[in-house]
Amino acid sequence: MGTEVLVTGGAGFIGGNFVQYMVEKYPDYEIYNLDLLTYAGDLTKHKEIEKKSNYHFLKADIADEKIINELFSVHNFDYVIHFAAESHVDRSITDPGIFVQTNVLGTQVLLEAAKEFGITKFVHVSTDEVYGELDFDPTTFFTEDTPIQPNSPYSASKASSDLLVRAYHETFNLPVNITRCSNNYGPYHFPEKLIPLTISRVLNDQKVPVYGDGKNIRDWLHVIDHCIAIDLVMHKGENGEVYNVGGHNERTNLEVVKTIINTLGKSEDLIEYVKDRLGHDKRYAIDPSKLESLGWQPTYKFETGIAQTIQWYLDNKGWWERIISGEYQNYFENQYSK
């Protein structure tokens, strides 16, 4: 049997792109996509790879200790690449409990199974939001040594899971890496997030909500650059180390929205300023030099990446319309439950 890779959350946005990337790049690897298929889990994106012999789908809850242990006892997983998480900040404000259940307890269950059954590497995919916020000084950046100071229930749950991963390395010598990325964008982004939400609203001539004054800054990372980074960390990351992944593409939320509107030839009158998000962090910006020392560089400039992303949504209107309508949620039953 060849190398077996368990990817949790592989029906989500970043995890889904990573699954496709790995299936295509490593035909001699067995790629197992484990996902519970909650509201953000979409399998329709994998239509092109689901018939490939090295792709396998497993429906399971990462917080279900019995099922996870059974899976680890049946499969000889070499790597665990852990994306599975509740990730929408707004949802964490209205329902923090599910974020603790999935992001903290689920991670602990996976870590325990990885420890008990033995793996080559556990890569925990986290977020720059665990660092809190930066001011608007363009010379300041998050580094791997920046103190963890999360400001939302979502980022607090991710910070908690980061600390558990570190603890399993320090206490049990579990081989781990943690990656902390900036905001991702690209194909198959769930339509409730800023960029796909804006694209779908603008195409339908609907108002685009912008929190506060729109001046909050994010560092945008193309999802394919992120996949390449995780692949590198998985194979060459130094055991126990944290690696920040950033795109060198800082933009205000308002700049992002206006770029999309102007690219699509619509009026900026579609912008609707709404009450600011609770605990809305001012700015995120990453110094990825530690990862770059391994040989990684982002390949997408924001101008190129956002243009390609907008075109992808134009070319794949059927996909995101099925997501918005909820039709995608029937795919598992129709394809996998026959």
* Count of extended strands: 12
Q: What is the molecular shape?
A: globular
Summing up helix and strand content along with how strands pair, one would put the structural category as: alpha/beta
Strand order of the largest sheet: 3-2-1-4-5-6-10
Q: Mean pLDDT score, rounded?
A: 93
Please give the radius of gyration in angstroms.
19 Å
CATH topology of the domain at 4-190 and 221-250 and 285-302: Rossmann fold
Uncertain segments:
none
Kindly report the name of the CATH homologous superfamily of the domain at 4-190 and 221-250 and 285-302: NAD(P)-binding Rossmann-like Domain
Portion of residues in beta strands equals 15-25%
The span between the termini is: 28 Å
For the sheet with most strands, the description reads: 7 strands, parallel
Question: Helix amount, in percent?
Answer: 40-55%
| H/I helix tally | 12
Q: What pattern of helices and strands is seen along the backbone?
A: EHEEHEHHEHEEHEEHEEHEHHHH
Which CATH C-level class of the domain at 4-190 and 221-250 and 285-302 is it? Alpha Beta
What brief labels describe this structure?
Rossmann fold, 3-stranded mixed sheet, alpha/beta, 12 helices, lyase, 338 residues, dTDP-glucose 4,6-dehydratase, globular, 41% helix, 7-stranded parallel sheet
